[in-house]
Amino acid sequence: MDLSIPSSFFETFSSHSLLHPLFPSNFQKLRSFPINSYFNLKSRKFPSKSLSWRQNCNYLRSQISSGNVDDVFVLEDVPHLTDFLPDLASYSNPLKKSQAYAIVKQSFVTSEDVVAQKIVVQRNSPRGVHFRRAGPREKVYFTPEEVRACIVTCGGLCPGINTVIREIVCGLNYMYGVDNVLGIEGGYRGFYSKNTLTLTPKVVNDIHKRGGTFLRTSRGGHDTHKIVDSIQDRGINQVYIIGGDGTQKGAALIYKEVEKRGLRVAVAGIPKTIDNDIAVIDKSFGFDTAVEEAQRAINAAHVEVESVENGVGIVKLMGRYCGFIATHATLASRDVDCCLIPESPFYLEGPDGLFEYIELRLKENGHLVIVVAEGAGQDYVAQSTHAAYEKDASGNKLLLDVGLWLSQKIKDHFVNVRKMEVNMKYIDPTYMIRAIPSNASDNIYCTLLAHSAVHGAMAGYTGFTVGPVNSRHAYIPISRVTEATNTVKLTDRMWARLLASTNQPSFLNSNDMLQERSIDGETVTVTKTT
Ligand SMILES: Nc1ncnc2c1ncn2[C@@H]1O[C@H](COP(=O)(O)OP(=O)(O)O)[C@@H](O)[C@H]1O
Ligand SMILES: O=P(O)(O)OC[C@H]1O[C@](O)(COP(=O)(O)O)[C@@H](O)[C@@H]1O
Ligand SMILES: [Mg+2]
C-alpha cells in the first residue's frame, strides 16, 4: 500500500492531510507533515482497501474542488512536539498509578476522541469540523523530574485567573509529580525583565480566593526572540500562557519560534477575557462571575431611579467590541429597559430613537435603566465630540467614555429641548466586575481548563489553546481562536430575547449616515445607522 501523500496535494491544500478510515494507524505517520488538519472520509463512495493512498488523495481533492464535501469529517488538529522532534521518547502516564483515577471508566483519552464544533445537525448535513478532545493521554513526553514549567498572565484582569494558576501548579504536582514550576511576573515582558517566582502547591494554596492575578500582568512588551531566549536560558520546557486574543497571538509566535529552534518546549494557551469575545469556545472563564457582579450595579441603579421622579439610570459595563456582558446582565436582571451594545448601532434623535423611547418609558413608568457596553456607539461619540482614538501598549483602541457622554446628551435633551427635569444616576462599575474572585462555577471551569492544559502539555501537544466546545473540553489550534472574535449576533434568538424582554427599539429602521436635523429650532446631528 502506498501511503505517501502527493506533494501536489499539499500545494493545493497545504493545511490538510488525510486519514484513511481503514488505516487509523497511519495517523502517527501523517502527523509528521506540517499540517494541522486531516480528513477522514466516511463516504460509501470512498476508495476501499484496493485503492492506494495516492488515489484516495486524488479522490478527495476532486471532491473538495467540486464542493462535494458533505461526507467529509474534518479534524482541526493541534501540533505535537514529535512533528518537529520525531525521535522524542515517550513514557507511560503516571496517572495510571493514581488512586483517584483508578476507578475512572476511561482514564485516558484516545487519538480517536474528538469534539464536534457543530452539534445541531440535520440528517444529511456534513460532519463538519472537530477538535481533539482534551484530557490525559496514555503516553506522556516528559518525566516528572525533567519538567520545568512556567506560567504567565497577560492583558486585562478577569475573575478566575488565580484559580487557573493554582490548578496548573497543583495539577502538575498532584497528577504528574512535577515540582518545578516558575511564575513569570508582570506579563510577557516579565520573561526578560524580571525575576521569576517559585510556585508550589503551598504558595498558591489560597490564591483562588483573591481577585486579580498573583503573577501580575501587563499590556505590550511582547518580544518573541527575547521571550524564547529566556525560555531557553532558564531551561523551561512547558509554557502556560493565560490571556486573551492578543496574548494568544503572542503565544502562537512563541510556539513558532520554539519550533524553529527545535526546542522540546510545549506551549499551552489558556484563553482569558472578561468580554467573552474569544471565538470557538463556549464561554470564557470569569464571564459568569462578571455578569453576576453586574447585577449589583443594575440593582443599585434601579433602586435609585425608582425612588425619584423621572429617574434615568445608566450602568456602563465592560465589552470593548462585543456586548456579551451587557446582554447577559440585562437578560438576567429584568430591571433594564434598554441595552446598548457595540454590535447594534443606535441613534438618539427622531422616530424610534433613544430619546423618544426614554420619554415613553418615563411617561409610562416614571423611571428607566439603561445598560451600555463600553464599546457601544463609539463612532457616534467620536463624531459628536470630535475626539481622536488613542491606543494602549498592546495596540488596543482606547475607548471614549460612552456612559458619561450618554448621560450628558440625555440631560441636555430633556432639559433644553423637552423642558423636562430628569434625575440622572450614572454608575460605572467596569473594573469592579472584573477585579473580584471567581464564583463557584467559574472556579470549577478554571480547574478544568488548567487540568486540560496540563494533560495536553504532558502529552506533548503544543501551540494549542484549551476550551470547552459544546461543553466538552478540547485542544484547539491557536490560530482558530485568534483569527476571528466572538460577537453578539443580532440575527440570533438571544438578541431577539433581549429585545423582547426590554421592549426597546431595535434601531434598525435607519441608514448608515449622519443627518443634520432641526428639532425645536435647534440644528442637531443625528446618526442613522443600520
Ligand atoms: N498581535 C500580537 N502579537 C504578539 N503579541 C501580542 C499581539 N497582540 C497583543 N500581544 C501581546 O499580548 C499581551 C496581552 O495583549 P492584550 O491585547 O493587552 O490583552 P489580551 O491578551 O487580554 O487581549 C501583551 O503583552 C501584548 O503585547
Ligand atoms: O483598562 P484596561 O486594564 O486596559 O482594561 C480595559 C479593557 O479590558 C477589557 O476588560 C478586555 O481586556 P482583554 O482584552 O485583556 O480581555 C475590556 O473590556 C476593557 O476595555
Ligand atoms: Mg484583547
UniProtKB/TrEMBL annotation:
Keywords: Allosteric enzyme, ATP-binding, Cytoplasm, Glycolysis, Kinase, Magnesium, Metal-binding, Nucleotide-binding, Transferase. It comes from the Eukaryota. It catalyses: beta-D-fructose 6-phosphate + ATP = beta-D-fructose 1,6-bisphosphate + ADP + H(+). Pfam families: PFK. The active site is at 275 (proton acceptor). One of its GO terms (cellular component) is cytoplasm. Mg(2+) binds at residue 245. GO terms for biological process: fructose 6-phosphate metabolic process. It is found in: Cytoplasm. Its main location: cytoplasm. NCBIfam families: PRK06830.1 (NF005301). Homotetramer. HAMAP family: Phosphofructokinase_II_X (MF_01981). This is ATP-dependent 6-phosphofructokinase. It comes from Jatropha curcas (Barbados nut). The gene is PFK.
